[in-house]
């Protein structure tokens, strides 16, 4: 028969836990299964990790600088001489920089912390979902996160998104604990995690706050006034955990710290609200986006056109959307079935936590007019994984009810059909896989809808469940494995097989920047050979000044730093528009003999930041020489 509410037997029950030394009811398979999940995740994230070298050279150069200067590590400076920072807060650089100081700066010390952050995120997601929905659901959620292609990409890369995702999952775990017992301590811990998420990637780390706060306000088992007080306390914890560093930067004398890259007035708070805040959402403040014009590879690399279908489009679809339709079905069905549940119902609370996370972040990503890249969507992966796991578990338990069975079948079929669509976008890659997923997944959906699992023997039901699960994971797993099997570098990496990395090219798989020795990336360098690049590298390695060179733009400076191990000034920051360093400061540094060479070209416009003025002054007062295919000016006597 058809019903609109789940039977009482399908209501959630907390997973059994040992209390006060009592014997635990934990299934014998639970710990080995968790160990296997984490071990396989570690293998997936560490496999051929060194092949990516220094991955995103922009952040790698900042990490290298942090291993050479504690001040550079504290502020996230691009150079050990502390002229200018990267255009993000430095929390993720702290982790990688400390690893580099302990083990020496290399590809593995740079990227292993990212991989371990991924393993930790999987473990925390498992613990969060398991707490109220059992070990099987926790394992499903952990595996879904581990096998999301964009998660495999980011947990093997040196962008801030790896630490950001771990901190968001930590916040969800603490919020789940807080909601269960109306605990202000756990809620404040959740807020602290989000404060450090802000110090990792600024406002993106706060997109989960509405869902977390709403879940606590609705479901925490205490009075309304206490719930408000607890939320205010957590808000204070959030401000303190994020604000201490903002205050430190603001109070530190500007003359003895680097310029805050990406800001217009040397302020971290302005960077958070401007270039990395409203500028990202609305456009402007130096931001550009796929929805704002352009086409082809550029448009795809910047997220594609804005709109509600953006997460499913050519740019982001294969990164994140493999299980997204199933997650949306699970969320809507779960909210409908729990509409009459008690206020403190833990299933609905979990749906609000994860659904609020997915809804707010998804809408922001879909309609951002400023700079957005497909890999940003890794922040959605934990929410999608949790919703699918919770929905599948609850619907499976209630499969005796026709409506639950039909919704579960719809989740299985829609996933198979959407995987078929995504795999068809690269039709030459494993064409047999998409047909297998569609046919087997469709058969499993029909079996579930027909009631085979409701009345069949346990063994038959388990076979159908495993078939549905394996087909749901087939597409995303294949794409994830292909991602792990190739190196990635540059500023805009993409997941999947090499045949699918069309917009991530420009000389390197998965990114817009060059790999290897960076000097080939300089405008004016032409088709620089390895020999030509080595000539410039050798020249700068021989310097003994505070800065080996200065050049235009962060990317160019980063390439030189990584190839030489020396400090290089990035004139104008990321794109040459930052007002640092000024011409007067540059002239003073040259007069003190602190800069050996000016390297002509580089990435970044000739306007703003004193970039053009410095180039003009150097050309008027020093003699050009050619090293390889690059024009340089010697600034020391």
Automatic annotation (TrEMBL):
InterPro entries for this protein: LipidA_mod_glycosyltrf_83 (IPR050297), RgtA/B/C-like (IPR038731), YkcA/B-like_C (IPR056785)
What is any Pfam family matched here?
A: YkcB_C
Tell me the organism's taxonomic lineage: Bacteria, Bacillati, Actinomycetota, Actinomycetes, Micromonosporales
Which spans are transmembrane here? 29-47, 108-127, 133-155, 186-219, 231-252, 320-337, 349-368, 374-391, 403-420, 432-454, 461-482
Query: Per the database record, which ranges form the Glycosyltransferase RgtA/B/C/D-like domain?
Result: 87-241
User: What is the protein name for this chain?
Assistant: Glycosyltransferase family 39 protein
Annotated region Disordered: where? 1-24
Protein source organism: Dactylosporangium darangshiense
Compartments where located: Cell membrane
**Predominant place of localization:** membrane
Extract the PANTHER family matched here. Answer: MANNOSYLTRANSFERASE YKCB-RELATED (PTHR33908), UNDECAPRENYL PHOSPHATE-ALPHA-4-AMINO-4-DEOXY-L-ARABINOSE ARABINOSYL TRANSFERASE (PTHR33908:SF3)
Q: What is the recorded membrane topology of this protein?
A: Multi-pass membrane protein
Domain named Putative mannosyltransferase YkcA/B-like C-terminal is located at 541-621
């Amino acid at each position: 028969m058809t019903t609109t509410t789940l039977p009482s037997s399908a209501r959630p029950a907390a997973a059994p836990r040992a209390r006060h030394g009592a014997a635990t009811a934990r299934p014998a398979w639970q710990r080995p299964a968790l160990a296997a999940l984490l071990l396989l995740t570690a293998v997936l994230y560490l496999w051929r990790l060194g092949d990516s070298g220094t991955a995103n050279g922009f952040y790698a150069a900042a990490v290298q600088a942090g291993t050479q200067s504690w001040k550079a590590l504290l502020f996230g400076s691009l150079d050990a001489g502390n002229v200018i920072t990267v255009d993000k807060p430095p929390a993720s650089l702290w982790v990688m920089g400390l690893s580099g100081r302990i083990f020496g700066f290399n590809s593995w010390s740079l990227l292993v912390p990212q991989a371990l952050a991924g393993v930790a995120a999987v473990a925390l997601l498992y613990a969060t979902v398991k707490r109220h929905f059992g070990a099987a659901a926790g394992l499903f959620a952990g595996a879904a996160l581990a096998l999301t292609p964009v998660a495999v990409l980011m947990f093997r890369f040196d962008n801030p998104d790896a630490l950001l995702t771990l901190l968001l999952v930590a916040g969800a775990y603490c919020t789940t604990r807080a909601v269960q017992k109306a605990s202000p301590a756990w809620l404040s811990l959740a807020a602290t995690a989000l404060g450090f998420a802000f110090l990792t990637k600024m406002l993106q780390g706060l997109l989960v706050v509405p869902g977390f706060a709403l879940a606590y306000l609705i479901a925490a088992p205490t009075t309304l006034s206490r719930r408000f007080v607890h939320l205010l306390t957590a808000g204070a914890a959030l401000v303190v955990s994020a604000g201490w560093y903002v205050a430190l930067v603001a109070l530190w004398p500007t003359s003895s710290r680097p310029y805050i890259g990406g800001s217009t007035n040397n302020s971290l708070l302005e960077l958070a609200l401007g270039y990395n805040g409203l500028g990202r959402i609305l456009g402007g403040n130096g931001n550009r986006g796929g929805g704002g014009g352009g086409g082809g590879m550029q448009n795809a690399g910047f997220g594609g056109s804005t709109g509600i279908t953006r997460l499913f489009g050519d740019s982001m679809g294969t990164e994140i959307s493999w299980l997204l339709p199933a997650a949306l079905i699970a969320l809507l069905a779960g909210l409908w079935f729990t509409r009459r549940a008690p206020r403190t119902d833990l299933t609905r609370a979990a749906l609000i936590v994860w659904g609020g996370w997915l809804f707010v972040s998804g809408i922001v990503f879909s309609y951002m007019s400023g700079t957005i890249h497909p890999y940003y969507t890794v922040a959605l992966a934990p929410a999608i994984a949790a919703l699918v796991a919770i929905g599948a578990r609850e619907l499976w338990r209630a499969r005796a009810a026709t409506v639950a069975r039909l919704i579960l079948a719809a989740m299985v079929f829609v996933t198979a059909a959407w995987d078929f669509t995504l795999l068809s976008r690269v039709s030459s890659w494993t064409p047999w896989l998409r047909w297998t997923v569609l046919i087997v997944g469709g058969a499993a959906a029909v079996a579930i809808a027909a009631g085979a699992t409701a009345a069949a023997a346990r063994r038959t039901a388990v076979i159908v469940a495993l078939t549905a699960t394996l087909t749901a994971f087939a597409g995303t797993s294949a794409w994830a494995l292909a991602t792990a099997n190739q190196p990635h570098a540059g500023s805009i990496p993409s997941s999947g097989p090499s045949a699918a990395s069309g917009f991530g090219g420009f000389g390197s798989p998965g990114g817009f920047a060059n790999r290897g020795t960076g000097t080939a990336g300089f405008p004016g360098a032409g088709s620089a050979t390895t020999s030509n690049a080595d000539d410039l590298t050798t020249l700068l390695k021989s310097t003994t000044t505070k800065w080996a060179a200065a050049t235009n733009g962060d990317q160019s400076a980063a390439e030189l730093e990584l190839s030489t191990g020396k400090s290089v000034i990035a004139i104008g920051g990321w794109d040459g528009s930052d007002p640092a360093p000024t011409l007067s400061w540059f002239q003073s540094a040259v007069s003190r003999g602190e800069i050996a060479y000016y390297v002509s070209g580089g990435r970044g416009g000739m306007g703003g930041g004193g970039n053009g003025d410095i180039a003009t002054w150097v050309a008027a007062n020093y003699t050009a020489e050619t090293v390889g295919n690059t024009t340089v000016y010697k600034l020391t006597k």
